[in-house]
Structures are given as C-alpha cells and as structure tokens.
Amino acid sequence: MELFISLNLITILGGIIARWNKRYDKKELDRLFLIIIFSLLTAVNVLRDTSVGADTYSYVQIFSELRELPWSSLNSYHCLDNWGMEIGFCILMKFTGLFTSDIHLYFLASGVLIFSSVAYFIYKNSSNVYVSTCIFISIFYVETFNMTRQYLALSFLLYAYYLLKESKVIKSLILFGIALLFHTTAIIFLLVYVLYYIKPGKNTVLLSIIGSVGILMVYNSIIQLAFILFPRYRFYLFSHSVYLMPQTGHGMTQLINIIIILGCFLIACLLRLKKRIKEDREIYLSLCMVVFATCIGIITLRVDIIHRLYAYYYIFLVLLVPNLLERLKKYKYLCYIPFLAGMNILFVVLLVGSKNNVLPYHFWSVLQL
C-alpha cells in the first residue's frame, strides 16, 4: 500500500511545487509534470508481478495460447469463442508475443497506450492538470491493473474526443472504430458525439438527470435487451454483485459521486448566474457524462458487468472538477482542499477494499533480489 500512497503524495507535492513556480512557463511545467507522474504510473503498472491483479493470471494464459496460435487462425470468431476477447486485444497480445514469451512486453505496450492517452487528454482539456491527475489516480488507477481491454478502448476514445473537438470528425470516428476492436462496450461513447453537438443550455444537465432517473426506473428491461445483443455476458445477470459487499468501497464511491454531482451542479448554477460558463460546451458535456456514470454506478450494485461501462463516462470527472473550480477565482482553493482530502480517503478505501487484488503488490520477479 505504501507504494500507491507514495504515488499520490508525489503527485500532490509535485502539483503544489509546479503550481506555485512562477519562473517557468506554465505549459512547460504542465508537460513536465504529466510526463514524470504518468511515467511513474506506467512503471508501477508494467513492472508488477503476475500475481498482482485479479485478471492477470487469465491474461498470462491467453498470452501463452496466442503465441502458439498461427496468424491464419486468428480472427474475431476464434477470439470470442475461445477467450471472450475482441480481435484488437488478441492482435496486440499476439504481436507482443512475437518478441518474447514474457507477458511484460504486453504490459508495457498496453500501459504506454493507456497512460499516454490519459495524460494527453488531461493536458489538452484540463484547467488544472495537477488536480485532474490526482482524480485519475484516486478513482481510476487501480482499475487499470485489470480492466485492460476497457482502458485500451478508452485510450483510443480519448484521442477520438480530441479530434472531435478539432472538428476532425472522420478521423475521430476511425479511432472510435478501433476502440470497438478492443471492447465492444465502447459503443456507448456514441452518446458523447450526440451531446457534443447539442447547444448547451440551462436545461441540458437537468434533462440528463431526468434521463438517468428514467433509466434507473426501467433498467431491468434495458439490461435484458443488452444481454440479448451481447449474450456472452448473460451469466452476470444471475450472479451476485460483488459491489454490494461493503468491503469493496463501491457504496461509498456512489455516495461520493452523488455529492460531487450535487456540488458541481450548484457551482455550475452559480457560475451561470455570473455568466462565466454560459456557452461552455465542455463543462456541460462533462457534467452530463458524470451524471450518466453515476447512474451506471448505481445499477452496478445489482449487475456486476455494468461496471465495465463506468469509465467511458466517468473519466470526464478529471476535467469537470478543475474546469469548474478554476472559474471560482479566489475561492477555488477553499474547494480544492476538502475535495482532494476526500479523493485521498476514497483512494485508500478503494485500494484496501478493491476486488482488483492489487495488494499485496509485488514487483516483477526479474527485479526481485
């Protein structure tokens, strides 16, 4: 645990030092900070022993089988039928297996893709990269040790979002298609495209909340339809959700999510009254995504598999919080201090109660003396 706590402390201290450093260009400091911190996050993720992570053992088995599989036999049907994996994931594993029999090269390739995309997403969109990084570590980092396919898909979606903002829609859709090759659940990111082209207004978030409540009321029918479309996940419909267990910390996560949404909604209303975010499409989009993510999180308490959809929307929290609070000017630090304290408490709760099995952490056996 000390290793993960240290990562968070280094991030906070590095952010404080960089934030108050007036001698160097802000953009250069932001880039340097993100390179250093996300390199450390990548290293800890990549250099783990195969005993770290609930899904790591199964990845090792699939990696070994893919190394022996001829390229001519590698296709979507074979990957889904034998391992329940998408073709993009299998190709990446197969490719890294050409060079070594050790899965750590795959860890390196996936780690670089995932963490570089998040760093780029934060750099291009956040008003405060230091706070955004703390949020990512506190809420998402532990999951990257297991939900690799989802986060690989998310890595392409984050680049796709940047291209969407740059009005490069065709290139954005190409990356969206690549994301689907890593995990079919990435299809729900289409909602981002729809909302991005809706002109923001005072009722945008309210309609999202009403829509989320409506989904919660009829989610059983929606889930039944989803399992008809994706029958390989039907097992989860009848399984007991581990997120109901108090030791996972998921219940506290959803409570904090609701508090965050209420706080962000009130701040957004305040700023709108002051006409500081009247036409800010990104803030409205981020707030809508966090609302939908919380809706998904609540449903997760009943059906495990829905959690796989969570990160696609909730990743916008790393933008929403700093982009809102930075507009509070001199009052922003009064909000940052309790928020970051809460994030660190949540990080410890999720780390200790995590079903991702990242504790106890052990380094790769090659590095052990």
Question: Can you tell me about this structure?
Answer:
The protein is mainly alpha-helical and 369 residues long. The protein has one domain. Helices cover 67% and strands 0% of the residues. It contains 16 helices and no strands. Helix 7 packs parallel to helix 16. The longest helix has 26 residues. The chain is globular, with a radius of gyration of 20 Å. The protein starts with a helix and ends in a 16-residue tail after the last helix. About 3% of the residues have low confidence.
The secondary-structure class comes to mainly alpha
Strand content: under 5%
| Domain count | 1
* Total beta-strand segments: 0
Low-confidence stretches: 238-249
Biggest pleated-sheet summary: none
Distance between the termini: 20 Å
How many helices? The count is 16
